[in-house]
Amino acid sequence: MEPRSSWTFFSNHAHVLIALAQDPSLRLRDLAERVGITERAVAQIVLDLEAAGALSREREGRRNLYRVNPQISLRHPVEAHRTVGEILQAVIGNAVRG
């Protein structure tokens, strides 16, 4: 049996959070292109992340500026002993400030 090549280690929620940690001023359209999902899916993920307290949004002129909350614990019991900031530190290599 051939291995499936379409899976990734992180979910689309993680991809959106990582992308916004790297560039907090990304537009939803650009974020969708970067992650490889629809703009509608990105909008729903952003709402999910905001509801969970992992992300906040501020209006800056005509654009949104997103702020990641690095102190929030991950949600699944397997990784709940880690924070969003620890994962982002491992993936993008610099400290994320809330």
Task: Explain what this protein looks like in three dimensions.
The protein has 98 residues and is an alpha+beta fold. It has helices spanning 12-22, 28-35, 39-51, 84-92, and strands spanning 55-60, 63-68. Helix 2 (28-35) packs across helix 3. It is globular. The termini are far apart. The relative contact order is 0.15.
In summary, what is this structure?
The protein has 98 residues and is of the alpha+beta class. The chain has 4 helices and 2 strands, in the order H-H-H-E-E-H.
List keywords for this structure.
single chain, 98 residues, alpha+beta, Arc Repressor Mutant, subunit A, two-stranded antiparallel sheet, 4 helices, globular
Secondary structure blueprint with pairings:
Blueprint: H1 12-22, H2 28-35, H3 39-51, E1 55-60, E2 63-68, H4 84-92
Antiparallel strand pairs: 1-2
Helix pairs in contact: 1-2, 1-3, 2-3
Tell me the overall shape: globular
Percent strand: 5-15%
- Contiguous low-pLDDT stretches (5 residues minimum) are none
How many helical elements? 4
User: How confident overall, as mean pLDDT?
Assistant: 92
CATH level-two architecture: Orthogonal Bundle
Let me know the number of strands: 2
CATH topology (level 3) name: Arc Repressor Mutant, subunit A
The level-1 CATH class: Mainly Alpha
Secondary structure class reads alpha+beta
> For the largest beta sheet, what order do the strands appear in spatially?
1-2
What is the H level of CATH, i.e. the homologous superfamily? Winged helix-like DNA-binding domain superfamily/Winged helix DNA-binding domain
Query: What is the H-and-E element order?
Result: HHHEEH
Integer count of domains: 1
